[in-house]
């Protein structure tokens, strides 16, 4: 493996990034995801929708599996990045969740297990059709630094720009919707449309983040940094900034350990986030 | 001097399904008044508020706001509203007082626009008016129930409305703070000239604060100034309130 040879050749990671395109892809994609996932996550957590991120990541997996299968079965699809199937499924899944939440008005949380198991179920069927597990699929499940392509990077950049622009211009509407949904509606804000935009953004961010963190761990990058930030932040803007700081730190630690120790980045990102979370909780306890 | 009528309700009947909730309601609120709308639970108070706010449409009768028929009324930021529900927002939400009050300007600032210096000054002014200035950068969840309710009033008045409507604002506020809460309302009414319409089931606490009283129990049983109201004897009172009530005696020295 390239990573092994780099270590044996004792090149530093920075030098390697300049030499190898795949590392540039991984680091740029990771650094960007470290910003947008916690940014959107701040809204997701305060709206108590953390589990939706989990459900959508599983739906994304079924999209990826469908993409991998179609790439094998239909030559015309071989050139299409499975990531786009993941995005498509994720957006479709987010709309379905909204439908289910209005069908089960009094059991809104039911939408989550329905979509989660549905996503895995469909995913497993496509995986078996595509001749079972292979390394490609493994990298989607747990994240990878060596598997991020230029195309993946471009997708990450595009989605991130959309997210940043939308949040910049709809910040006050998103804030009110999160803080007090009743009031948002009563004061004449187009709550439905803003919520719709928000849920689509969430679906897209989950789909692109999964390349680095992996399907199974992507929701953690949206929730754990926020969980830490919320303990110590004054105000919502500070919550966002701290979430991004914690998220970015976790991603960088994850990428470095993937490079030097050949660990799956998703796992290290989650463990780093949890260590920061515990540190914050202990620090807060100590201070009171 | 002829006072302008800011809320004018005529001949309003309202039904949920087949059940009459409000019948034959006439209510006019003069500019600058502090009206207490009282009635027992289930008397249709909240329904009447929703009608005034345009959240429920009336089929029978007419509602005018600032002399304009409600159907044609557009300036909703002239009416501020503090709901009972303000007490049940997500308490752990990490938002400062400043951020919460800024929320009251979202509609006025408009979609896709970001608030500027003027809006920031308006927020500080509104927070000052409710006496919460020292807490501007504190998280809303760290405040007491009474303080939180003041913040929600600041959010309602930040867009500079002429009328402030409050639905049971002291629910969840401890009794020590209720008194200073009403002081603040009196300040908004007398010093800032805001017309107040306060809904409550607890008539005793408001009798020495409001200028007008309206007693609602499906029908509007009494509507007039406080002076007229306190001249009613107990029997008339218990009749209009639906069942026996006692007025606290602190208004006799008026």
Give a written overview of the molecule.
- Chain B: Keywords: ATP-binding, Nucleotide-binding, Transport.
- Chain B: GO terms for molecular function: ATP binding; ATP hydrolysis activity.
- Chain B: Pfam families: ABC_tran.
- The complex is a heterodimer of chains A (288) and B (254).
- Chain A is an all-alpha fold.
- Chain A has a single domain (2-287), classed as ABC transporter involved in vitamin B12 uptake, BtuC (Orthogonal Bundle), CATH 1.10.3470.10.
- Chain A has 13 helices and no strands.
- Chain A has helices at 2-8, 13-19, 21-46, 50-73, 82-103, 111-129, 135-142, 150-179, 181-186, 191-213, 218-232, 236-261, 265-287.
- In chain A, helix 3 packs parallel to helix 8 and helix 4 (50-73) crosses helix 5 (82-103).
- Chain A is globular.
- The model of chain A has no long low-confidence stretch (mean pLDDT 88).
- Chain B is of the alpha/beta class.
- Chain B has a domain at 5-91 and 163-251: 3-Layer(aba) Sandwich (Rossmann fold).
- Chain B is 29% helix and 26% strand.
- Chain B is built from 8 helices and 10 strands.
- In chain B, strand 9 (212-217) and strand 10 (219-225) form a beta hairpin.
- The longest helix of chain B has 16 residues, at 175-190.
- The model of chain B is unreliable at 242-254 (pLDDT under 50).
- The interface between A and B is medium-sized, with 29 and 32 residues.
Mean pLDDT of chain A comes to 88
Mind telling me the CATH class of chain A?
Answer: Mainly Alpha
Discrete helix count of chain A: 13
CATH architecture of the domain at 5-91 and 163-251 in chain B: 3-Layer(aba) Sandwich
Kindly report the name of the CATH homologous superfamily of the domain at 5-91 and 163-251 in chain B.
Answer: P-loop containing nucleotide triphosphate hydrolases
Helix percentage of chain B: 25-40%
Family (chain B): Belongs to the ABC transporter superfamily.
InterPro entries (chain B): AAA+_ATPase, ABC_transporter-like_ATP-bd, ABC_transporter-like_CS, Metal_Ion_Import_ABC, P-loop_NTPase
Domain ABC transporter (chain B): 7-242
Keywords (chain B): ATP-binding, Nucleotide-binding, Transport
């Amino acid at each position: 493996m390239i990573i092994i040879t780099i270590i044996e050749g004792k090149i530093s990671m920075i030098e390697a990034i300049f030499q190898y395109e795949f590392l540039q892809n991984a680091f740029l994609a990771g650094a960007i995801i470290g910003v947008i996932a916690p940014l959107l996550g701040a809204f997701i957590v305060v709206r108590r929708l953390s589990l939706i991120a989990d459900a959508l990541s599983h739906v994304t997996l079924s999209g990826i599996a469908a993409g991998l299968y179609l790439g094998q079965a239909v030559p015309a699809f071989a050139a299409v990045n499975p990531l786009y199937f993941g995005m498509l499924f994720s957006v479709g899944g987010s709309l379905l969740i909204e439908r289910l939440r209005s069908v089960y008005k009094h059991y809104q949380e039911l939408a989550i297990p329905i979509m989660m198991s549905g996503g895995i179920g469909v995913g497993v069927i496509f995986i078996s059709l595509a001749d079972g597990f292979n390394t490609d699929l493994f990298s989607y499940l747990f994240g990878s630094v060596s598997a991020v392509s230029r195309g993946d990077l471009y997708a990450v950049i595009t989605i991130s720009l959309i997210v940043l622009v939308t949040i910049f211009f709809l910040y006050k509407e998103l804030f009110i919707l999160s803080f007090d949904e009743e009031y948002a509606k009563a004061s004449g804000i187009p709550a439905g449309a803003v919520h719709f935009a928000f849920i689509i953004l969430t679906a897209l961010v989950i789909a692109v983040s999964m390349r680095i963190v992996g399907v199974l761990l992507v929701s953690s990058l949206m929730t754990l940094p926020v969980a830490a930030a919320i303990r110590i932040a004054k105000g919502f803007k500070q919550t966002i900034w701290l979430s991004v700081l914690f998220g970015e730190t976790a991603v960088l630690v994850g990428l470095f350990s993937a490079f030097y120790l050949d660990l799956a980045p998703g796992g290290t990102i989650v463990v780093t986030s949890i260590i920061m979370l515990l540190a914050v909780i202990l620090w807060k306890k100590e201070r009171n | 001097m002829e006072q302008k009528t800011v809320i004018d309700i005529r001949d309003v009947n309202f039904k949920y399904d087949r059940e009459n909730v409000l019948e034959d309601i006439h209510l006019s609120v003069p500019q600058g008044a502090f009206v207490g709308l009282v009635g027992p639970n289930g008397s249709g108070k909240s329904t009447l508020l929703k009608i005034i706010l345009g959240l429920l449409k009336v089929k029978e009768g007419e509602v005018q706001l600032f002399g304009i028929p409600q159907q044609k009324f557009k300036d909703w930021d002239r009416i501020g509203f503090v709901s009972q529900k303000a007490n049940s927002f997500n308490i752990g939400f990490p938002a400062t007082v400043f951020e919460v009050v800024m929320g009251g300007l979202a509609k006025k600032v408009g979609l896709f626009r970001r608030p500027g210096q003027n809006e920031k000054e308006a927020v500080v002014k509104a927070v000052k008016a409710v006496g919460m200035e020292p807490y501007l950068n504190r998280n809303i969840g760290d405040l007491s129930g009474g303080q939180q309710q003041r913040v929600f009033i600041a959010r309602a008045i930040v867009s500079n409305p002429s009328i402030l409507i409050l639905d049971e604002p002291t629910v969840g506020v401890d009794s020590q703070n209720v008194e200073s809460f009403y002081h603040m309302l009196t300040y908004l009414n007398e010093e800032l000239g805001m017309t107040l319409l306060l809904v409550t089931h607890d008539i005793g606490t408001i009798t020495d604060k409001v200028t007008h009283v309206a007693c609602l129990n499906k029908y509007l049983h009494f509507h007039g100034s406080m002076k007229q109201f306190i001249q009613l004897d107990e029997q008339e009172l218990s009749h209009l309130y639906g069942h026996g009530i006692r007025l606290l005696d602190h208004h006799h020295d008026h």
